[in-house]
Design goal:
The structure is a single chain. The chain is α/β, with parallel strands linked by helices and 279 residues long. It has one domain: Adenoviral Proteinase, Chain, CATH 3.40.395. 34% of the residues lie in helices and 16% in strands. It has ten helices and ten strands. The strands form four sheets. The chain has a four-stranded mixed beta sheet with strand order 3-4-7-8. The chain has a two-stranded antiparallel ribbon with strand order 1-2. It has a two-stranded antiparallel ribbon with strand order 5-6. Strand 7 and strand 8 form a beta hairpin. The longest helix is centred in the C-terminal third of the chain and has 21 residues. This is Ubiquitin-like protease family profile domain-containing protein.
Length: 279
Amino acid sequence: MQAAGITRAQLMQQEAIPVAEAKPKRDYVSGEPFLPADELKTVGTQMHRFQEWYMKASATERDTIGAKIYSLDYFHKHDDYLWIPFKDVFDLYQLDALNVSMVTAWVMRFKGPKKNNYKHVAFMEPRQINTPMVQAQAHSINNSILTFLAQNNHKDSIYLPYNKSLINIVSRYIYSFHWVLFAFGVSHSTVLVFDSMDHEDIFFIEINVDKQQTGTNLCGYYVFDYLHLAPRQFFYDFRYMDLSGKKPCDDMLRAVQEQLMGFINEQILDPAGEFYVGD
């Protein structure tokens, strides 16, 4: 219980569980700005740019963004498409919990035919490997993972942003749709888990990374940051790594917002972009 951040009295509902204070949540309404004018002044250029595009697109009753996913280094046997609902982008603007479409888009920043700097890295598909899919299709998923690992055993590392839905009080886990990052060091036979929540885990070595504030749902943003920081040397000296305190939380969150929206603007929406899908 201590590792989960709650007391016995709170678990027995004898005391309230404290949560972080939050401003009233804004609901998504199609055709309305993601941010009002006063808040838009506080965000970056790419977020300005997308909101302008969105206002025009939503006027035509469009409600999603399409992107091409290449089979190269992904958990796919053929090219595929990613569909990002405007609602998922809205959540990013609100610093709300991130859906799998946005996590997949973040992974796409690192891969694709033109990403020569990441030829040593492969990614598993977070839409296809997650707790509900594993529970529903365990045998099929296991076989697919083994095939993928065999096909990519020449890579330095393989990453999987994993969405786990788990409630297990006996093991002192209390999660609900929580994002973590699995990093597989192929040549080192090592698996690292980067988790923005504090808990005890007898199976993995704890790495000192920045953690989300209790009561928030920002785990996806932290996974983005961990993945952005992921260097090859993770697997050489992971026992001595300290990735905490590299930047203030607000700066990290704003950087994630701006970088992801820049990728969507330049590589998905722009006809010259690598992942552009025509209307």
